[in-house]
Write a structure and sequence with these properties.
A hairpin with a 6-residue loop joins strand 9 and strand 10 (158-164). The protein is an alpha+beta fold. It is 37% helix and 22% strand. The protein binds zinc ion. Zinc ion (ZN) binds at residues 227, 240, 246, 257, 259, 261-262.
Length: 462
């Protein structure tokens, strides 16, 4: 009898080893069409998700009748980045599915639990997300639609990611029909920070400047342009914002003034084949190196394009589309001397008793530009704050480097999306990148800049 019991336990144990360690590879578990996933949820209670500062972002409550309910204590504040589980999965609930449904408690305990018909507790996922910054970004964006991304350029740690309009993951089941209704044009389920594709507006002048630097490595400081408030070539006229006359400018001043006249004329000088290749090397038309759902930015300008398309593209209008995360990553590469760190959201995974299962650290994606190029762009972005469209961010507590933008998205109205992307430095604290887009608002300096300022202040001062 003893022998048989032992044998049963042994077989059971072997079964578990096979079950947890071999049969269920990560891809296997994460495949939403896999029936074995359901089997897994019968054995394991889905683990918790935490912010870096210890706030519970997702947990599973088991009531007296052993019904499991997935609960999101921060509700809408983290809706897209944490995602949901129950009506399919999205966000971290999807990418961390493997960890949340894996139980690393001792096999013997699992066997005992199983013999007693009890479930094992899943592992816990600790994110890099900063609750205070996320809340600040969420509140600062207010009632506007749009997105905010905050990350550490030297490590790739993602500190905050907000997208609006949002949804309540606690009631995703009840709200589902309305959320996916074909008459609903708000697209609440779309994570605008990673999947929203927007015209870049003047933030694109970062790329136009970089291409100009590459074509004029020796003499870009000799550049001069006389701005009369508009620039015409053929049948196309480009205006500076409010038809402002910026007068005589060098490249740095044209960048800080966000002078459309200067930049549309620079566009006409560029080697378009090389410009296209440079943009592709800057992650246009490329999958972003991130584990959550994201869209590709697109740059379509080709050699031989007409004058009008070239002039518009050089100032960030035309056909170019970018995601806010993409803009944040390029800004991060400039802050990090030209090297892009791959963004990541999971810091570590622990078992139910707090024992470390897996630790993640920053990984280099690669060098996007030389450190000299990054230094010039940084200097220019500093001048935007010192004397250009980002002056509101000038302060004596921390240094800011950035670029504003206003992206017209409708030819029939003056409506525009407001952009800011930049980074800040204060001795003794990690640098942070803040990228903001405010849909259908107005100029970047009036809408996106104050939001970025609230986030920088919250991080460096409060
Ligand atoms: Zn101008």
């Amino acid at each position: 009898m003893v022998t048989y019991t032992f044998l049963a336990v042994f077989l059971c144990l072997m079964g578990y080893v096979t079950y947890f360690e071999f049969a269920l590879s990560e891809q296997f578990i994460n495949n939403p069409y896999n029936k074995r996933q359901e089997l897994f949820t019968q054995k394991v209670i889905r683990g918790e998700i935490y912010s870096a500062d210890g706030v519970t972002l997702a947990e599973t409550i088991v009531d007296a009748e052993e019904n499991e309910v997935r609960r999101y204590p921060c509700a809408r504040i983290f809706s897209h980045i944490v995602g949901y589980s129950g009506h399919g999965t999205a966000g971290l609930e999807a990418t961390a599915n493997f960890s949340l449904l894996r139980s690393n408690i001792f096999y013997g305990e699992k066997v005992v639990s199983d013999l007693q018909g009890e479930k094992s507790p899943g592992d816990s996922v600790y994110t890099t997300l900063n609750y205070e910054l996320q809340l600040q970004a969420f509140d600062a964006l207010g009632h506007y639609d749009g997105a905010v991304v905050v990350l550490e350029p030297q490590t790739g740690r993602l500190l905050a990611m907000v997208s609006k309009p949002d949804f309540d993951p606690n009631t995703i089941g009840e709200d589902w029909e309305e959320l996916v209704d074909e008459d609903n044009d708000r697209s609440e389920l779309l994570n605008r920070a990673t999947q929203g594709r927007y015209p870049p507006g003047s933030t694109f002048k970062i790329f136009t400047t970089l291409e100009y630097l590459r074509e004029h490595p020796e003499d870009y400081t000799d550049y001069r342009f006389s701005c009369s408030g508009e620039y015409t070539e053929g049948h196309k006229t480009i205006h500076c914002y409010n038809n402002a006359r910026h007068g005589s400018e060098d490249l740095k001043e044209a960048f800080a003034n966000s002078c459309n006249s200067a930049y549309s004329s620079i566009g006409l000088e560029l080697d378009l084949a090389q410009f296209h290749a440079m943009c592709e090397s800057m992650l246009f038309d490329t999958d972003l190196p991130v584990a959550i759902e994201s869209s590709k930015s697109s740059f379509v300008l080709e050699e031989g394009a007409d004058t009008s398309a070239v002039m518009e593209t050089a100032i960030g209008q035309g056909q170019t589309l970018v995601t806010p995360l993409h803009v944040a990553l390029i800004t991060g590469a400039i802050a990090n001397d030209g090297v892009l760190m791959s963004p990541y959201v999971i810091d570590h995974v622990s078992d139910d008793r707090g024992v470390l299962v897996e630790q993640y650290t920053g990984k280099e994606y690669g060098r996007l530009m030389s450190s000299e190029e990054a230094a010039v762009l940084k200097e220019y972005m500093g001048y935007v704050i010192e004397a250009g469209t980002g002056r509101q961010l000038s302060n004596d507590r921390y240094e800011v480097y950035g670029k504003t933008g206003s992206a017209e998205f409708s030819t029939s109205s003056k409506a525009s999306h407001s952009w800011f992307t930049g980074f800040a430095h204060q001795d003794g604290k990690p640098d942070i990148v803040v990228t903001v887009i405010v849909e259908d608002s107005g100029v970047g300096s009036e809408y996106a800049v104050p939001i970025a300022q609230e986030i920088f202040d919250a991080y460096y001062i409060e």
